[in-house]
Design goal:
binds zinc ion; alpha/beta; 3-stranded mixed beta sheet; single chain; 4-stranded mixed beta sheet; CBS-domain; 3 domains
Length: 379
């Protein structure tokens, strides 16, 4: 995870904090101090912010732990200034499961808000329920924040939780692809509205709109790709690796290969062509910086890599192909057969579309000829 610090591991899921969140907290503190706020006010404000992000983290755990009940693992959870993201290994395919996973996040915030309501009720007189009085206490402010987090996430803008619920419901009738297109269209409309509101309200809203637009587009692409490759198997599409290193090759030989073949991660095999590891470009550069050209690549290769068997379905491997950098290795009996990466898939889908368009237009011109011919006979 780039530009993010690991906070720790909770319930088997790594939690990261993006650098920009630290920066935002720091900037808010400094600007409050420059504006003449007292130290207790600044600390109070910052601790409220931290508590809100704690609640956002619990929201993400709501998604992650519910997904786990359906057998879907979560890679990690990342907190950033515009919220949190639980990176699930894949999205649930069954609409019912997707609805439950999507609603689990906001449900956590509603739960926290109810708990805080109890605290406010027990520690204050009945007058505490007026909104302006609610903002006086820490618990009251955290309560309002949780209601806002739940409400914002339930907006029907894909890929917000509300948008996911909408997509799942639409997909029952229209199929996943058309449902995602509709949900993304609605999401984009809302992004434009949010950005316009941001112009007069807060630049933060523009940032959130841009983020939602990009995330929605990326997921639409993944869904479209999934439907294009549905039913096909890896052996129909993989290509031989552009370059292969043997374990006893030197770093110098690896560097020469990368000069010729680009920055792609290079597979490392033994004499029987069994895949032993992978040498990513940044690892190669660090190793050369420290140790020069002499040592063998086997000392620096990474032994954890993404692999799949040639018989596996491409669409079920798609999360592995889309995740992270570098290709997915196609391996049979430990032997390396080839690779399949995101750009290869993209080119394949492009080609398939071109062919379909060609066939459709030929079909149309053929039937136009037939119609023209029969009219000719009739006249
Ligand atoms: Zn959520």
């Amino acid at each position: 995870m780039r530009h993010a610090w690991k906070l720790g591991r909770l319930a088997g899921i790594d939690v990261f904090i993006h650098a920009t969140l630290w920066l935002t907290l720091g900037l808010l503190g400094v600007s409050a101090w420059l504006a003449g706020a007292s130290l207790p006010t600044i600390l109070g404000g910052l601790s409220l912010m931290i508590a809100v992000f704690g609640c956002v983290l619990l929201h993400e755990f709501g998604h992650a732990l519910t997904a786990r009940r359906f057998g879907i693992a979560t890679k990690d959870i990342v907190l950033s200034p515009i919220g949190g993201v639980a990176r699930l290994e894949r999205m649930p395919r069954k609409p019912g499961q997707e609805v439950v996973v999507a609603l689990a996040g906001p449900a956590v915030n509603v739960g926290i808000a109810l708990l805080l309501a109890g605290v406010v009720f027990l520690t204050n007189s009945s007058a505490a329920w007026q909104l302006e009085r609610l903002a006086e206490s820490f618990a009251g402010r955290l309560l309002v924040a949780n209601v806002l987090v739940a409400a914002l996430n339930l907006l029907p803008a894909f890929p917000l939780d509300g948008g996911r619920v909408l997509r799942a419901l639409l997909s029952i009738r229209f199929g996943r692809r058309r449902a995602t297109r509709a949900a993304v269209f609605l999401g984009r409309t809302l992004c434009v509205g949010l950005a316009l509101l941001g112009l007069v309200q807060s630049p933060m809203l523009i940032l959130i709109a841009v983020f939602l637009w990009i995330a929605g587009t990326a997921e639409l692409r993944a869904v479209e790709m999934t439907s294009e490759v549905a039913g096909r198997r890896l052996h129909e599409l993989f290509v031989p690796p552009r370059t292969v290193l043997f374990a006893n090759h030197s770093l110098g030989a690896a560097a020469l290969s990368s000069l010729r073949n680009g920055r792609e991660a290079m597979p490392v095999v033994d004499s029987g062509y069994r895949l032993l590891g992978v040498l990513p470009h940044p690892v190669l550069m660090r190793a050369v910086t420290q140790f020069g050209f002499e040592p063998p690549v086997s000392e620096f290769m990474e032994t954890e890599f993404r692999q799949a068997a040639p018989e596996e379905l491409i669409d079920s491997c798609l999360p592995k192909i889309l995740a992270g950098e570098g290709p997915l290795f196609v391996v049979e009996d430990q032997r390396l057969l080839g690779t399949i990466g995101f750009s290869l898939l993209g080119r394949f889908v492009e080609l398939e579309r071109a062919l379909t368009t060609h066939q459709e237009s030929r079909g149309q011109s053929d039937s136009a000829k037939r119609e023209g011919g029969s009219r000719g006979v009739r006249s």
